[in-house]
Amino acid sequence: MTTNPFSELIPVAPLKIYAHPSCEKLGALVNEDLIKSREQDVAKEQIHALNRLGYQSTSYLLDADCPRFGSGEAKAKLNESVRGKDLFILADVTNHSGQYKIGEEVTATSPDSIFQDIKRIIAACNGKPYRTTVILPYLYENRQNRRNVLESLDCATALQELYQMGVENIITFDSHDPTVQNAIPIQGFDNFSTAFQFIRKIAATEKDMQFDEDHLMIVSPDDGGMSRAVYYANVLGVNMGMFYKKRNYETKVDDNGKNPIIGYEFLGNSVADKDVLIVDDMIASGTSILEIAYELKKRHARRIYIAATFGLFSDGYERFDKAYQDGVVDRIYTTNLVYSPETLLQKPYYVNVDLSKYISLIINTLNHDTSVNDILVPTLRIQELLSSLR
Q1: Residue 219 parent element (H or E)
Q2: pLDDT (tens digit, 9 = 90+) per residue, 320-364?
Q3: Nearest to residue 173, comparing CAs of 380, 366, 359?
């Protein structure tokens, strides 16, 4: 029988999870997994009964709301006590499917409005929880992580706001730039990797994929994702390559504040007749990643797969549909850490990677005040998975 890692440990406090409406489905899955796992724990472990006080529950979700006034202003309202609770706040700031009315106008929720709701919930708690942890799978404003001349530094400011409101831990996944945690150097900040979940799902879906250097290659779409690609390549024992953008710095920048791209250069071994896995933290418009996929096809790559933690698809799916129909992209993997419309889920080339059990494990580990080091770096689990495939 597998040893229960929490059987001899006492939770620091009764557990509560506030799943913002932007993260309602993911929160429900996390809650369901926690209920099942803790029921099994109690069934297996008949000792330390006092340690289980507040351990088992029919639901760990906090009953709370963020209603809005007719003016569009809002407030947070807790419908149960959080005194002495180990509170986790889970929110997807990229979810644009929510709506609220101002007069007769319907307004879609934005990252700013969702982040304000997080602060409202913290404020409504009035310092009563034993501890507050905020889980932002997509770290709010992490694309605005550095300052160029006269610009705001939004991510750093947001982290400091949460710290000043009493948040002890901030949890995120595959951060665009994890060095932003330097804004809160003495505060808890954990950036979890999704590499194990991606590799496991890819291995289960692509039955004929061979994880060796003769058949597979990892590619980073730019220099910013180099460390991620290097990690994948090292744990899988394959080669990697990287594209970099050639820009025209003599031409006026575009509306997005960037100089126009005039081409892509590839650094790495030949991709001819190999499967290629492009790894990145997000798919936004998808322009660059698809152009790179076409470049790889020109270099005679066999099959091309894309794995990105956050599938935002901010410009729709038309270009992805065409890339699939052209035989350029074989499969796209993203996670359920951000909102995935039903339209996306029905695409023949799309696979959604479930991270709910991972979040459940993280919450359970922290609730027992034990180290997250073993789950923070998934190298050992990936190696065990690869051994089982051979």
Answers
A1: strand 216-220
A2: 999 999 999 999 999 999 999 999 999 999 999 999 999 999 999
A3: 359
Q: How many CA atoms lie less than 13 Å away from 139 in the CB half-sphere?
A: 28
Q: Given this structure, which CATH class describes domain 195-353?
A: alpha beta
What whole-number distance in Å separates Cα of residue 169 and Cα of residue 154?
19
Q: Does domain 15-193+356-376 have CATH number 3.40.50.2300?
A: no
**Residue pLDDT, tens place only, 256-296:** 556 677 778 899 999 999 999 999 999 999 988 999 999 99
Query: Does residue 272 come out as left (phi exceeding 0), alpha (psi in the -120 to 50 range) or beta?
Result: beta
3-state secondary structure of 22: helix
Q: State how far the Cα of 309 lies from the Cα of 175, in Å rounded to an integer.
A: 10
65 bridge partner residues: 77
| Residue at 366: amino acid letter | L
Cα separation, 201 vs 155, in Å, equals 31
Q: Residue 263's Cα: distance from chain center in Å?
A: 30
- Centroid of chain to Cα 390: 29
Q: Are strands 77-78 and 350-353 parallel, antiparallel or unpaired?
A: unpaired
Instruction: Quote the CA–CA distance of 390 and 236 in Å, as a whole number.
Output: 12
- Structure tokens, 315: 């410009």
Q: Is the pLDDT reported for residue 213 higher than 70?
A: yes
Residue 112 token pair: 């700013």
DSSP string, 12-80: SS-EEEEE-GGGHHHHHHHHHHHHHHHHHHHHH--S-GGGGTTT--S--B--EE--B-TTS-B--EESS
Q: How far is CA 260 from CA 217, 252, 256, 294, in A?
A: 29, 8, 10, 19
User: Strand 350-353 vs strand 331-335: parallel, antiparallel, or unpaired?
Assistant: parallel
Q: Is 161 helix (H, G, I), strand (E, B) or coil?
A: helix
Domain boundary assignment for the chain: 15-193+356-376, 195-353
Q: Which two tokens stand for residue 72?
A: 């569009």
Read off φ and ψ for residue 333, nearest 5 degrees.
Answer: -115, 125
CB 6 within 8 A of CB 37: no
**15-193+356-376 and 195-353 in the same fold:** yes
What are the residues whose beta carbons fall under 8 Å from the beta carbon of 28, sequence distance 6 or more? 19, 61
Which residues share a beta bridge with 311?
A: 283
